[in-house]
Amino acid sequence: MDNPSKASLNFYLTGKQWLVLGALLLCFGSWFTTRFDFLFLYQIPPNQTIHPNYYTFHDMSENWLKGEKLGVVDISRMMVNMHRLQISDYILNDSPKDGKCTYLALDPGFGIIVAIARKLMTDIPDSYLRAECLQLVCDGVMLFLLFFTFLRMGIIPATMAGLFYGVHPVFAYQAVFPFQYFWEGWLISLAVISLIWARRALVEGDKRLYAIPLIILAAAAIGFTLWVRSTALIVALTFIAVFLTVPSLRRYCGIFFLIFALTIMPQVMRASSVMGHFALSTRMSWHTAFQGLGHYPNQYGLEDEDLYVFTKTEKDYGIRYNYCDYTKHDIAAQKEFMQVWRQDPGFVTRSLAARITSNILFNYDFDFRHLSSILCTLMGLTALLFALRRRGEHLFIAGMMAMVYIGYAVAIGLVYYMAPPYGYVALLALLFTIPSFTAFIMNEGAMLLDHPRKFFSSAHWRWPEQAPIAKTAMAGITVIVLSFAAALCVPAVHNYLFPHKPYQELWISYNQPNLDDNQMLVHQWEALPQEKKFNFLKLVYREVPHTANAGYDVSHFIADKIHTLIYLERLQNHHEKPVFTYVRYKADVLGALNAVSLSILGWRADKIDVFNINDPDSWDGRKIHMTLITTPERAGVDYQRLANEKFARFNYAVTWLGPNELIARHNGQGCDALRTVVSMLFNAYCPYDPTTGASPLDPGNVAPDNTKSLTPADKKAF
User: Fold this and answer.
1) How far is 311 from 314, CA to CA, in rounded Å?
2) Among positive and negative, which fits the CA dihedral 12, 18, 22, 27?
3) How far apart are CA 30 and CA 113, in angstroms?
4) Spatial distance between the Cα atoms of 60 and 102, rounded to a whole number of angstroms
């Protein structure tokens, strides 16, 4: 007699169901591992990665929950909270009334999401953690929805899509980075999945009872996405085109458009009333377009930095920075953009063409560092060509996602390049083509292995029935892709679109210096005269508060109050040299480095010294010594004038030691960089009185129970 418990188990889970469950667990296992890893890298105190504008929306949510209009923020209260410990509860006390304004620089939808997170996640500190926890929950829900949606195409396609979503760094980073970028992609994905299931309900059984609510959900989701980021307009237009062209959905176009219009109406009314004309958003566009021109080497001194654009509009037009409203500033940026256009339309055209081309081919990988980016694009192209032959649901999904991908890449390219946050939606479009790509590989691979002669026969590649539109589309796409690929192989075309960037690349990292660097500094310290040692120690302890607690040392003070940063310079030989500072004055040093290292055509930084232990004049971090490599690519560029202007913007005075060597001195309070370096390099247990005890630079004096690094694990860009 059979075992009853075993029979009961087989009744509920068949062999195929066990396989599906295993595949789902595999996807969630990869998702959990990747998300946990990114949480550790980017959100472990004291070096959390928080968008500067997050607390704007946090305060916006607080005012909205109190009954204020959506968009009102208390600037004074927000600034107080921004300078507190980031995981601390948000201070809810009202600040002076004159600190309030209506925030128009970005779309307000994320403020609603933050309010929802703060109401739902009440057991978590009222900080960015609540929004982040809600994102992680919704991110896991989206993984399940993707797997369940594509399971209809097979276990393998569903698993491949789930694994791609689970392990790709762009998706993982956005999930742990609390800001509007994640929600734009999540809402668009929800709308696409709803539309896929609505079409299935109509095609497979005319189930209007299921289809109509799904269509309403898709319309509401894509409509609210415009509240979060106005760039979602491209996806909204794609949805409207789908409803007009797909026979099974055409009769429901009115329902979709009605719900969509009702959803966006409050946002449109708000934006239009502020702008004085019909508008979907109040966010700036010309600022970004003008800034985008500085991404490529140029002879005009244009820089890919927000601060550069704000400084230029203030200097040339007298428009001071307004945190809440960029309207006047944006008009000035438009004038600057048009001036460059009139002066050199070829440069502007090349910049636009290069950005659009880069966005389409490489998606978020605008520096062309990862082969995987272009492989993802080729995967999407292959899936589209396969879908044109297979048609049905494959063509519905792949065709819709192709329009989203191209439209989004072109729209972003008109104003900026596709940085990782902006590439989130485009990468999602490629994600939705994975099942078609997987089906193509499985079908054609099985045919090639089992029947190689049939695979290479003309009958195998013949269209199964008349399909003139699909044939024309496939022929056109093939010709365009091959022509464009051939053009990019021509060196003149490639160099025109993607010119060599001669300047160094600078990024933020948290890698701890190695033991050799530590020991070298120890030897330099031992060689210093006693008087210099004493003066240095006085400088180190200058800002440490006095306390009777002997255990509260310099290391603890820095760890508690200062977020240590290391700026790594990548040299020509690919070696990395650390430059130290801390967040309180980081704009000074980082600004000085950017002043000559970015956007000045023909210059690279060969050597940067923020401090030298043998040079007391550099101990307070105000003196920066730079040696440059010049590789001029255009004649007539006054490099020194451009560098002087940039240094002046960051309050540095420049002394040129030669045509390619300079000393920059800060005119105000500098970065007390060395004090941070002492603690960070050696994790020293420093006594308070510098006249007693051994040198904090002596590794032998490090207390075993206090040898905790001030920096977490390595943080690397993906």
Assistant:
1) 5
2) negative
3) 27
4) 9
Rounded CA gap, 664 and 589, in Å? 10
pLDDT tens-digit series, residues 26-82: 999 999 999 998 888 788 765 577 887 898 999 999 999 999 999 999 888 887 777
Phi, psi of 394 (to 5 degrees): -60, -45
Instruction: Quote the tokens at residue 366.
Output: 């605008």
| DSSP-assigned states of every residue in 14-72 | -HHHHHHHHHHHHHHHHHHHHHHHHHHHHSSTTS----TTHHHHHHHHHHHHTTPPTTE
Q: Cα–Cα–Cα angle for 338, 648, 317, nearest 5°?
A: 35
How many angstroms separate the CA atoms of 621 and 666, rounded?
9
The position carrying tokens 């999904």 is 397
Could you read off the pLDDT of 376-410 as tens digits, one per residue? 888 988 888 888 888 888 889 998 999 999 999 99
Q: CA-CA distances (angstroms) from residue 687 to 531, 547, 552, 554, 692?
A: 19, 11, 9, 8, 8
Q: How far apart are CA 240 and CA 494, in angstroms?
A: 36
Helices (H), 43-154: 54-65, 75-82, 109-120, 128-150
- Report yes or no: 58 and 113 within 8 Å, Cβ to Cβ: no
What CA–CA distances, in Å, run from 103 to 70, 432, 636?
9, 35, 43
Ordered strands of the 652-658 beta sheet: 603-609, 623-630, 661-666, 652-658
Inter-residue contact 554 to 679 (CB < 8 Å): yes
Q: Mind giving me the DSSP string for 257-269?
A: HHHHHHHHHHHHH
What does residue 669 show for φ and ψ, rounded to 5 degrees? -70, 125
Nearest alpha-carbon partner for 537 in 683, 710, 700, 686: 686
CA dist., res. 75 & res. 96, Å (int): 9
Angle at 133 between CA 48 and CA 109, to 5 degrees: 90
DSSP state of 182: H
DSSP bridge pairs for 392: none
Enter the pTM of the model. 0.77
Residue with tokens 């300047």: 503
The arrangement of strands across the sheet holding 506-509 comes to 506-509, 564-570, 576-582
Tens digit of pLDDT for each residue in 638-652? 778 877 877 777 777
The candidate with the shortest Cα–Cα distance to 684, out of 582, 580, 564, 554, is 554
Q: Residues 424, 181: contact at Cβ < 8 Å?
A: yes
Q: Which two tokens stand for residue 170?
A: 């762009």
Burial of 540 (0-12, 13-18, 19+ CB in 10 A): buried
Going by C-alpha positions, the residue among 278, 289, 322, 325 that lies closest to residue 106 is 325
Residue-wise over 319-346: b if at least 16 C-beta within 10 A, else e? Answer: beeeeebbeebbebbbebbeebeeebee
Separation of alpha carbons 410 and 414, rounded Å:
6
With 0-12 / 13-18 / 19 or more C-beta atoms within 10 angstroms meaning exposed / middle / buried, residue 574 is exposed
Rounded Cα distance between 495 and 34, Å, is 37
